[in-house]
Amino acid sequence: MVSSLILASGSKTRQALLKNAGLQFKAAPADVDERAIEEGLPTDERDPVSVAKHLALAKAIEVSRRNPGAYVIGCDQTMSLGDRIFHKASSREEARETLKTLRGKAHFLNSAVCLIRDGDLVWSEVSRACMQVREFSDAFLDDYLERNGDAVLSSVGCYQLEGEGIQLFDAIAGDYFTILGLPLLPLLAALRDYGINHA
């Protein structure tokens, strides 16, 4: 008997990635306080990669408690510049400050994914993508924010690569799925190993 598979996320993008890969799963968003989890971590585990790992685990464990016997996929992504972890902007002015901070620098998207079953960690992975933002003018920034409106508030970096956000970059090094917040290739391999993905 094949165990059920659950994605502990309400993200339409992550759901589409799994669906397009041919997986049978259900989505069950986790009920966790991400900022409280982050603030409760020991100081030496508040780096961007560790935070992404802990958040992915917390989400999967919470959903696993409600779904005994199921394999639960937990995932989370942090965006970092050095040791600084960014969160979604709450206003266009805050988005402007985020993009000005990123301008001309390389930042990282740190995407963690794990498999939990009955509250126990079965497998985990963290994949990183390096995003080199170009030196753009203040005039371009103003126009970009005006054209994209509140859509810039929907992602932590204030950009969507599949849209005009691609204009912010000089170079990108990393896996496309990692950028979208779900390291899909290692996840698919793990699911094959556990007999959940029969591809």
How confident is the prediction overall: mean pLDDT?
94
Structural class: alpha/beta
The ordered string of helix (H) and strand (E) elements is EHEHHEEHEEHEHH
Beta content: 25-35%
Q: Provide the low-confidence segments as ranges.
A: none
**What is the correct CATH architecture?**
Alpha-Beta Complex
**Biggest pleated-sheet summary:** 7 strands, mixed
Which fold does the CATH topology refer to? Maf protein
Q: If helices are DSSP runs of H or I spanning 4 or more residues, what is the number of helices?
A: 7
Number of structurally distinct domains? 1
Written account of the structure:
By secondary structure, this protein is of the alpha/beta class. The chain has one domain (5-193): Maf protein (Alpha-Beta Complex), CATH 3.90.950.10. Helix content is 36%, strand content 25%. The chain has helices at 12-20, 34-40, 48-66, 92-102, 138-148, 176-179, 184-193; strands at 5-7, 26-27, 71-81, 84-86, 106-117, 120-133, 169-173. Strands 1, 2, 3, 4, 5, 6 and 7 form a seven-stranded mixed beta sheet that branches. Helix 4 crosses helix 5. The two termini are 17 Å apart. The relative contact order is 0.17. The model has no long low-confidence stretch (mean pLDDT 94). Belongs to the Maf family. The active site is at 76 (proton acceptor). Its EC number is 3.6.1.9. This is Nucleoside triphosphate pyrophosphatase. Nucleoside triphosphate pyrophosphatase. May have a dual role in cell division arrest and in preventing the incorporation of modified nucleotides into cellular nucleic acids.
